[in-house]
């Protein structure tokens, strides 16, 4: 279902200068700001009016900075937990599920809430301009963007660590407009980001933007829109596992819009974000009440990342201290950063599947484990209204029910490649597609 917006339905605002301005293109920051800071969307519609569920993800279009609706989307689904809630002694636990769970109405073919990012970002993009969108990922984001861009014929360059390409599975072959390149084995997400930054210095390639892209954040914020419009109230607590923390920032921003909406209460959800030990840079910074992350040796960071089950939670340079970033979100909501071990997340994964009936991504299991620990530690009240953001699930079921196709890298680069080599090889790679 494709639909164009005839007129813009939002503007942008700088969190540094307060300046409000039109989105005249692929704007990722306020050019008049004197220091780094996020920009936010201000929508014409103060109150959110949902479209019919047939619109999929775009039922939330009033609060999405998109130019058109793309094909194939599915929205997050929220339901009240009975079995997990009873097991934990919670009376008001709600699960927002993004993934594949047909009985609940969740039909995300990549089994991850990263689809919310991809459909928002690609819906904002003017992909008729002949440029190639560049996305770096440790796995799930790449799979989501590949699926969306393939289905809608949008040129895409994916940069993924070679050790993570096994997660690029699909139920249908990917269109040639999508190309995968990798940073060699032993690299991590940060190395893939470095490769993508080099690519974006080449004419004809455009950076997706990560947390700076308002479409990515507002797309992820639809998990909160799903929860609040289903429950009828803003939750007291919000649980999610984080790598960059962009999803938690998005939840905070959606919360602020819902307060302004006026129909769902005026409280701010306490952001309860969690990481997978031993890679816990956000936890260390938060414990020290520091806006700055502590610099970790590259080799030590890679070694820690190699040990965690939830590999997608491995961003070494997250939008933490930037104005409007995770530090500010946690401060404003009196939030917390929690940590769980591989053992605890595995136990939580089994618990959730046994009680709720669907398998989880490791990152989602981190969120469940952190909720279990918070209940044990009496950090949350038994009658509190809690939103548990399950960011990925149903993958094992989906794989059993579908024949899989894997995307293979066209090129593999060294961890610190020569720019001219990257330029020449990428231009050649896309020569027959758009450039």
Distance between the termini: 28 Å
For the record, the CATH class of the largest domain is: Alpha Beta
Per DSSP, the total helix count is 14
Q: If strands are numbered along the chain, what order do they take across the biggest sheet?
A: 4-5-16-13-14-15
Could you list the spans in which at least 5 consecutive residues all have pLDDT below 50?
none
Shape: globular
Mean of pLDDT: 94
Domain tally: 2
User: Share of helix among residues?
Assistant: 25-40%
The SS-based structural class is alpha/beta
At the fold tier of CATH, the topology name of the largest domain is Rossmann fold
Number of strands: 18
**Over the alpha carbons, how many angstroms does the gyration radius reach?**
20 Å
Largest sheet: 6 strands, mixed
Oligomer: single chain
Strand content: 15-25%
The CATH level-2 architecture of the largest domain is identified as 3-Layer(aba) Sandwich
Protein model, in words:
- With 435 residues, this protein is of the alpha/beta class.
- The chain folds into 2 domains: 77-109 and 215-398, Rossmann fold (3-Layer(aba) Sandwich); 132-203 and 404-435, Rossmann fold.
- Helix content is 34%, strand content 17%.
- The chain contains 14 helices and 18 strands.
- The chain has helices at 83-88, 114-124, 140-152, 189-199, 214-220, 222-231, 246-261, 281-287, 298-307, 326-333, 342-356, 362-376, 395-401, 419-429; strands at 10-14, 20-21, 39-43, 77-80, 93-97, 100-101, 106-107, 132-136, 156-161, 169-170, 178-183, 205-207, 237-241, 270-276, 336-340, 386-390, 405-406, 411-413.
- A 6-stranded mixed β-sheet has the order 4-5-16-13-14-15, with helices on both faces. It has a 5-stranded parallel β-sheet with strand order 12-8-9-11-18, sandwiched between helices.
- α3 (140-152) links the parallel β8 (132-136) and β9.
- α2 crosses α3, α5 (214-220) crosses α7 and α11 crosses α12 (362-376).
- The chain starts with 9 loop residues before the first strand and ends in a 6-residue tail after the last helix.
- The model has no long low-confidence stretch (mean pLDDT 94).
């Amino acid at each position: 279902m494709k639909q164009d917006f005839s007129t813009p339905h939002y503007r942008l605002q700088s969190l540094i200068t307060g300046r409000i301005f039109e989105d005249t293109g692929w704007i990722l920051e306020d050019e008049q700001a004197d220091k780094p800071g996020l920009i936010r969307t201000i929508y014409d519609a103060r109150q959110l009016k949902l479209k019919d569920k047939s619109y999929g993800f775009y039922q939330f279009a009033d609060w999405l900075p998109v130019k058109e609706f793309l094909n194939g989307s599915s929205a997050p689904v929220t339901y009240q937990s009975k079995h997990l809630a009873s097991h934990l002694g919670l009376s008001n636990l709600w699960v927002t599920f993004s993934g594949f769970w047909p009985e609940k109405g969740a039909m995300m073919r990549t089994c991850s809430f990263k689809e919310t990012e991809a459909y928002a970002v690609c819906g904002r993009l003017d992909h008729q301009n002949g440029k190639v969108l560049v996305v770096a990922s440790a796995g799930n984001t790449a799979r989501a963007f590949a699926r969306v861009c393939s289905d809608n014929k949008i040129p895409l360059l994916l940069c993924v660590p070679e050790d993570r390409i096994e997660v690029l599975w699909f139920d249908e072959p990917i269109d040639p407009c999508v190309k995968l390149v990798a940073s060699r084995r032993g690299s991590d997400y940060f190395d893939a980001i470095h490769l993508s930054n080099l690519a974006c210095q080449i004419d004809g390639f455009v950076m997706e933007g990560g947390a700076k892209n308002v479409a990515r954040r507002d797309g992820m914020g639809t998990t909160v829109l799903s929860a609040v419009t289903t429950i009828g109230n803003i939750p007291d607590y919000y649980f999610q596992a984080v790598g960059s923390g962009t999803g938690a920032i998005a939840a905070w921003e959606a919360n602020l819009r819902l307060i302004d909406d006026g129909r769902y209460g005026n409280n701010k959800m306490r952001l309860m974000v969690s990481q997978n030990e031993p890679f816990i840079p956000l936890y260390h910074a938060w414990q020290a009440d520091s806006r700055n992350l502590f610099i970790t040796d590259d080799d030590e960071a890679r070694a820690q990342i190699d040990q965690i089950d939830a590999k997608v939670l491995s961003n070494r340079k997250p939008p933490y201290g930037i104005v409007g970033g995770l530090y500010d979100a946690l401060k404003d909501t009196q939030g917390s950063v929690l940590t769980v071990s591989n053992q605890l997340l595995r136990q939580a994964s089994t618990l959730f599947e046994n009680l709720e009936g669907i398998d989880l991504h490791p990152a989602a299991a981190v969120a469940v484990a952190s909720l279990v620990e918070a209940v044990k530690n009496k950090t949350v009240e038994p009658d509190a209204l809690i939103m548990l953001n399950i960011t990925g699930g149903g993958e094992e079921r989906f794989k059993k029910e579908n024949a899989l196709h894997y995307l293979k890298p066209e090129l593999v680069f060294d961890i610190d490649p020569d720019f001219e080599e990257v330029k020449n090889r990428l231009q050649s790679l896309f020569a027959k597609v758009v450039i």
